[in-house]
């Protein structure tokens, strides 16, 4: 959109010609100058510059959207089909169904609030077999602070899903679906 030609934006012919005569042919070139610079360069009134810039901006800039409208749109058009429930009703409602599949989700907050524990539990929920109430999915756990603990994950699994987690071989099966990535630099 930034490289869209000014003469194709429906500006009045007189102002479009002035832009062309001063070798300002794209939206990017026009929008990279201040209104005062354009007024001086084009030798036109501030009202004409303001009107032209408003029209160029309207055509080249996408309309604003709220986070809620984007989330609702994603729910309606999601091709990956669904969300991972956090098993926290209020949070799932706020997230329009849970953590969306197929996207990178970052969890932030103050130290000691339980971010790591929450992420470990989500990794378990995503990787549990469908027959056990999970998503039978694979997880990429990006551990930037090197806090991932397989021991803690087993403890959470045994406490949260005792009847499932003590089934022979299930912990190994789930563990094979959780891929821990520890970047050395970001």
N-end to C-end Cα span: 31 Å
Q: Which band does the percent of strand residues land in?
A: 5-15%
Mean pLDDT: 86
What spatial order of strands do you see in the largest sheet?
1-2
What's the β-strand tally?
4
Give the topology string: H per helix, E per strand.
HHHHHEHEHEHHHE
Number of helices: 10
- What is the helix fraction of residues, given as a range? 40-55%
Largest sheet: 2 strands, antiparallel
Uncertain ranges: none
List strands and helices in order, with pairings.
Layout: H1 13-21, H2 27-31, H3 35-42, H4 46-60, H5 67-77, E1 83-84, H6 89-94, E2 99-100, H7 115-127, E3 139-142, H8 150-160, H9 162-165, H10 170-175, E4 178-181
Parallel strand pairs: 3-4
Antiparallel strand pairs: 1-2
Characterization of this structure:
- The chain has 186 residues and is mainly alpha-helical.
- Helix content is 47%, strand content 6%.
- The protein has ten helices and four strands; from the N terminus they run αααααβαβαβαααβ.
- The strands form two sheets. A two-stranded antiparallel sheet has the order 1-2. It has a two-stranded parallel ribbon with strand order 3-4.
- The longest helix is centred in the N-terminal third of the chain and has 15 residues.
- The two termini are 31 Å apart.
Supply database-style keywords.
two-stranded parallel sheet, two-stranded antiparallel ribbon, mainly alpha, 186 residues
Short note summarizing the structure:
The chain has helices spanning 13-21, 27-31, 35-42, 46-60, 67-77, 89-94, 115-127, 150-160, 162-165, 170-175; strands at residues 83-84, 99-100, 139-142, 178-181. With 186 residues, the protein is mainly alpha-helical.
């Amino acid at each position: 959109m930034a490289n869209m030609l000014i003469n194709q934006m429906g500006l009045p012919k007189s102002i479009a010609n002035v832009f062309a005569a001063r070798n300002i042919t794209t939206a990017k070139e026009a929008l990279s100058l201040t209104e005062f610079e354009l007024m001086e360069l084009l030798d036109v009134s501030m009202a004409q510059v303001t009107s032209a810039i408003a029209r160029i901006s309207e055509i080249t800039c996408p309309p604003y959207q709220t986070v809620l409208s984007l989330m609702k749109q994603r729910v309606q058009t999601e091709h990956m089909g669904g969300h991972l429930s956090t098993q926290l009703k209020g949070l799932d409602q706020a997230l329009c169904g849970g953590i969306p599949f197929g996207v990178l989700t970052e969890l932030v907050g103050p130290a000691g609030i339980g971010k790591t524990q929450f992420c470990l539990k989500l990794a378990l929920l995503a990787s549990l077999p469908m027959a056990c109430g999970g998503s039978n999915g694979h997880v990429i756990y990006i551990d930037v602070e090197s806090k991932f603990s397989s021991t803690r994950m087993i403890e959470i699994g045994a406490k949260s899903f005792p009847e499932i987690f003590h089934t022979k071989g299930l912990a190994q099966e789930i563990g094979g679906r959780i891929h821990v990535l520890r970047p050395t630099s970001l």
